[in-house]
Design a protein that fits this description.
This protein is an alpha+beta fold. The chain is built from ten helices and eleven strands.
Length: 415
């Protein structure tokens, strides 16, 4: 049975007034933050949906930034590749002029001097820096010049010229995540871009009785190829051919050793995994602390030149006044370099197109997800304003009623 005391009306009034004040404070906080969920207990189901939407929206915005960066990066790379292509075209024009047999040796030597300067410009382009300060064609070695000029004095030159261009870069392994578990390769290495001929590597080691002694792996153009104890040279050849690497492997019928040939014009990159020495044992690679290409075994026979080799060969033919060589090997080598850079331009263009299409799709998804997030977490201001007005009216009415119930007494004035 409830006991009625003189303090009970006052306690009840205080309790109800505090409830009204709490409700007013809650709705005012929601209107200030424009969010209808201040605590998880406000709406647990809506809160769980909001968290998922916020997480997904953050990922979409990150993907959008990545695709924008990729597009800008591809535009810069495309610009440099087109400049290199224009230089190749100019060198080819000089080759055609030098091959027609109407120029003197002095004229051809003057052409060779221009070709040598154009060669230096191509090397400068191959060592180009991007807006972020990284080398565009160095692959993983983003802060290392991918190509190094070696100068000397060619026959009939009479002055110092470029005699060799060495590649010091690495593979193109930088990726940008443009969607959930979807990546776009940002890089195109110098060993792919500035190459002309398909590489061929022939080991001089007879691998007829070769057997892998322990489990391990090796890499060809970034593709991991695993080997197991007991694998023979035939098994290794089959595994290489089954891998996605752009390389064809077979057994050289002359040396009985491993032979590799690129399926397109590029510098073949190979490396033994730590703790494994398969390629070294087969006479393809040399034992060295630097895994970067080229690190061929000195006894291996390697063929397939870069675009720089083609230009150097043409220049030397011009220096010798050999119009026949200029018109045959010189022009043929430049055509190979032009074909390769044309295919690389198409590859960069396709990557750029994919990034652009992905960017457009993300720009359609982001507003939709934002609208879904707003539907579960944003405050309905019209409803909130109505609720606030009703609470304020009820609070005023409660105060007026309390004033009539709790009449002042003499003790209230004596306190």
């Amino acid at each position: 049975m409830r006991r009625i005391s003189t303090n009970m009306p006052n306690d009840d009034i205080q309790f109800r007034l505090r409830r009204h004040e709490q409700a007013l404070s809650s709705i005012q906080s929601k209107m200030a933050s424009q969010q209808k969920i201040q605590d998880l207990r406000d709406d647990p189901l809506a809160a769980s949906h909001a968290v998922r939407y916020e997480s997904y929206l953050a990922r979409l915005q990150r993907f959008e930034q990545n695709t924008q960066y990729a597009q800008d990066h591809y535009k810069v790379v495309d610009g440099y590749l087109r400049q290199a292509q224009d230089i190749y075209q100019r060198v080819r024009e000089l080759a055609v002029q030098g091959a027609n047999g109407t120029y003197t040796k002095d004229d051809m030597k003057a052409m060779a001097v221009e070709v040598n300067e154009l060669l230096k410009e191509v090397v400068q382009i191959s060592n180009a820096l991007g807006p972020d300060g990284k080398r565009l064609f160095a692959g993983d070695k983003a802060y290392t010049e991918p190509f190094r000029i070696v100068e000397g004095t060619p026959t009939n030159a009479g002055e110092s010229m470029v005699v060799r261009v060495e590649y010091q870069g690495a593979g193109a392994n930088r990726n940008a995540e443009i969607d959930e578990n979807a990546y776009s390769n940002l890089d195109i290495s110098g060993g792919e871009t500035f190459w002309a001929e398909k590489m061929q590597i022939f080991s001089s080691y007879d691998a007829t009785g070769y057997r892998v002694e322990k489990s391990g792996a090796f890499y060809i153009d970034g593709q991991r190829i695993e080997v197991k104890p007991g694998d023979t040279i035939g098994t290794i050849v089959a595994k290489i051919n089954e891998s996605p690497a752009p390389v064809k492997a077979y057994i050289d019928p002359t040396t009985k050793g491993l032979a590799l040939e690129g399926t397109n014009a590029h510098l073949i990159r190979m490396e033994d995994e730590a703790g494994s020495s398969v390629l070294k044992d087969l006479g393809i690679l040399r034992f060295t602390s630097d895994p970067g290409a080229p690190n061929w075994n000195p006894t291996a026979r390697v063929s397939g030149g870069s675009a720089f080799d083609m230009i150097i060969r043409l220049r030397d033919a011009l220096l010798q006044g050999n119009a026949e060589m200029v018109g045959s090997q010189g022009i043929a080598g430049l055509d190979l370099a032009l074909d390769n850079i044309g295919s690389r331009l198409a590859e960069v263009g396709s990557r750029q197109e994919r990034a652009e299409m992905t960017w457009k799709r993300l720009n359609q998804q982001i507003p939709d997800v934002t609208a879904n997030l707003a539907s579960v977490s944003s405050l309905d201001f019209a409803q909130a304003a109505t609720d606030l007005s009703m609470l304020e009216f009820a609070h005023k009415a409660a105060l007026q009623t309390a004033a009539k119930i709790s009449q002042p007494t003499l003790l209230d004035f004596l306190r």
